[in-house]
Design brief:
six-stranded mixed β-sheet, Aldehyde Dehydrogenase, Chain A, domain 2, 23 strands, about 35% helix, single chain, alpha/beta, about 20% strand
């Protein structure tokens, strides 16, 4: 644990800089709320400088970045190597600011960040077009070129890995980037900028501006020098971004909310399903758009399965995020804790069954931090707010179904369509359900496995576009058609249609 607060400055045009305003905000440890852990720059007056740096770097092809795909591949591969070399420090910083457990950061987030850069390093020199010789003998070439400047706006729940998910393919494509990390968790974004410079990225290729979404984020959305905006966050903000980005017709990639069902049929391996449902609901303190926050379980095994689930939830240890033995840490802020507790209060007013948890933890180490019991709420009807809205905390609702058709209907009965899990010993059934559930990612007999090879993005109001895989590269590439006239002589026959001679 750092002895002194982390100073989080801006990173513009290849170097760490102080904010023009001279203003900083304080960030306290969400695990005890009385220890200052970070002093964060207010970059609201520096957005223009960061965008200009990225724009100039792209337009001037600084260091050959836009055209030299082998350079980009080397930089991305070296970045992956440096992330691994600095894994301990990055993991501690990630957990300290976000409240996620140190095990999550060490075993999940930081290794995945490295894997993203490694994957796209391998893709950088494989961005190829096509060509065709026409029946006339002329040639048509289809060329792919980087779009330009990308604004990456990221949330506080997975600060490093989501930033890398957005940035790595953009850099592989030859774009330049301005990153706006979440106000609560900006530290690892600046560390990534330093790593990229050490890896050989030219000045201006990657920039970081810290500050609020209402100022920094707004300017990035409306800037006519930004060509692509990739945002991960809540759906209401995504709608605002889509509306306001229309003024400059910039591309938008939106990975938004989720209200993801885990569907357990009576013929599933219940032991395995119970373990995975517990993991899917409470990993990262439940603060995840991918969380399996809705359990749909077949009525014939519902009571048995809920009992198995509660046995596992009771074993979860809540503690400080840097304690290696903690399964859950504190929520990211007092405001987020209050928001989640309000959902629990609504469940009580609706007469739902809080069969485990539901309370803020107090006493001992919990007295000053933002800690909450992992919570299970049984018999949650589709009409309930808890069934329909994203809670973003350690709360799992339980709803029973009778047959396959009802399971599909319940799974699709929200505005979201990000992910889902299907548990069944019948492969045909699992595939039928997976086909009919409206979600961008479906796990069968597993949950929450997110390798870079799995496309990530949503149906309905869970977003637009896909992150991960080679599909993500397309967001950052323009397609140009080039026609080469290979015919001899000064006159093509169809010119006579206009010229008349």
């Amino acid at each position: 644990m750092p002895d002194t607060p982390v100073i989080v400055n801006l990173f513009v045009n290849g170097e760490e800089v102080k904010p023009s305003s001279g203003k900083y905000s304080e960030r306290f440890d969400p695990g005890n709320n009385d220890r200052l852990i970070g002093v964060i720059a207010d970059g609201s007056e520096d957005v223009g400088a960061a965008v200009d740096a990225a724009r100039d770097a792209f337009d001037s092809n600084v260091g050959g970045w836009v055209t030299d795909y082998r350079l980009r591949a080397r930089v991305l591969l070296k970045t992956a190597e440096l992330i691994r070399e600095n894994a301990e420090a990055l993991a501690e910083m990630e957990s300290l600011f976000s409240g996620k457990t140190i095990r999550t950061s060490k075993l999940g987030d930081v290794p995945r960040a490295a894997e993203l850069f490694e994957f796209y390093a391998g893709a950088a020199d494989k961005i190829i077009g096509t060509s065709q010789v026409l029946r006339t003998g002329d040639l048509v070439a289809i060329v792919k070129q980087p779009v330009g400047v990308v604004a990456a706006i990221t949330p506080w729940n997975f600060p490093l890995v989501i930033l890398c998910r957005q940035v790595a393919p953009a850099l592989a494509a030859g774009c330049t980037v301005v990153a706006k990390p979440a106000s609560h968790t900006p530290a690892t974004a600046v560390e990534l900028a330093k790593i990229l410079i050490r890896a050989g990225a030219p000045r201006g290729v990657f920039n970081v501006v810290t500050g609020s979404g209402g100022t920094v984020g707004r300017e990035l959305v409306k800037s006519d020098k930004v060509d692509v905006l990739n945002f991960t966050g809540e759906t209401s903000t995504g709608k605002w971004i889509m509306e306001n980005a229309a003024g400059t017709l910039k591309r938008v990639v939106l990975e938004l909310g989720g209200k993801n069902p885990n569907i357990v049929f009576e013929d599933a391996n219940l032991e395995r399903a119970a373990n995975a449902v517990t993991y899917g609901a409470y990993a990262n303190n439940g603060e995840s758009c991918a969380a399996g926050s809705r359990l749909l379980v077949q009525s014939t095994v519902k009571d048995k399965f809920v009992k198995m689930l509660i046995e596992r939830v009771r074993m979860l240890r809540v503690g400080h995020q840097l304690d290696e033995s903690s399964d859950l840490g504190p929520l990211v802020s007092a405001e987020q804790l209050e928001r989640v507790l309000e959902f629990v209060r609504v469940s009580a007013s609706e007469g739902l069954d809080i069969v485990y948890g539901g309370k803020r933890l107090s006493g001992d180490i919990f007295s000053k931090g933002h800690y909450m019991q992992p919570t299970v709420i049984d018999n949650t009807p589709p009409s309930s707010k808890l069934f329909r809205e994203e809670i973003f905390g350690p709360v799992l609702t339980v709803t029973e179904f009778t047959d396959e058709d009802e399971a599909i209907s319940l799974a699709n009965a929200t505005i979201y369509g990000l992910a889902a899990g299907v548990w069944s010993g019948d492969t045909g059934r699992a595939l039928r359900v997976a086909e009919k559930v409206k979600a961008g990612a479906i796990w069968i007999n597993t949950y929450y496995t997110l390798p870079v090879e799995l496309p990530w993005g949503g149906f309905k109001q869970s977003g637009i576009g896909r992150n991960n895989t080679v599909l993500a590269l397309e967001h950052y590439l323009e397609v140009k058609g080039i026609y080469v006239d290979a015919q001899p002589g000064p006159m093509r026959p169809y010119y006579k249609l206009v010229l008349g001679y």
